[in-house]
Amino acid sequence: MNSIISETVLKTGGASDPPASVGDPPTGTAESNLGKRPSSLAGTVTPVPSGESPDGTGGSPVLPARGHKRAFTLIELLVVIAVIAILAGLLLPALSKSKEQALRIACLNNLKQLQICNHLYTLDHADRLPPNNFVNTFLDVHERGIIDSTFGILPPGWNSPLRWWDLPADRHNQGCDFAFADGHAEHWRWAAPKIFESVGQDIGGAGDLKDFRRVQAGVRPETRF
């Protein structure tokens, strides 16, 4: 009796459904629901033939990793190195010049401090200079010609051959620092380079003579001899 009722129910339920054609997908499968997906997903998936990867090597599809960054190529690295080298070549001369100027300012400041100390000594001792029997000023002497603590030059008015008794220094961009009795200091640039040959060397050319006359003009004339 139960088998007769079950067969009747199956036949009744199957009669109400339309006959399914051959090849139609069953209702509720993934293929029939594909068309019901939101339109925003369209175009986001590139179809790949079955059994073939995106690079054509075969196998399952390989998706790119998120956050992956491309590294430098050799050409890009060489370009960066070349740019750095060019910038260094442009900046190094300027840095070298700035360093030389800083050294010159430091030396000039040292001479000025010595001259100020000498000036303060004079003010504190009834306007008398330190007891060394010489005019108290300071300058840079050529390092190869230092034989004592003084600098001598032929004073104006002497009838004597022109020559350097002591040769001034030639540094800080071909120049020399001078401190004067009133307390100020200056940097003099020479017209000719100062090359030491011997103590009491002769004047070497028109430029050297111009420098000699410039230093000699700062010395008090001497006519007693």
The SSE string, one letter per element, is: HHHEEEEEH
Query: Which regions have little confidence, pLDDT < 50, spanning 5+ residues?
Result: 1-16, 28-35, 39-43
- State the total count of DSSP E strands: 5
* Largest β sheet strand count, sense and barrel closure: 3 strands, antiparallel
SS class: mainly alpha
Physical arrangement of strands within the biggest beta sheet: 1-3-4
The tally of helices reads 4
Task: Sum up the overall morphology in one term.
Answer: elongated
| CA distance, first residue to last residue | 162 Å
Share of helix among residues? Answer: 25-40%
Mean pLDDT: 75
Walk me through the structure.
This protein is mostly helical. It has a domain of 152 residues. It is 36% helix and 7% strand. The strands form 2 sheets. Strands 1-3-4 form a 3-stranded antiparallel β-sheet. A hairpin with a 5-residue loop joins strand 3 and strand 4. The longest helix is centred in the middle third of the chain and has 51 residues. It starts with a helix and ends in a 9-residue tail after the last helix. The N terminus is likely disordered.
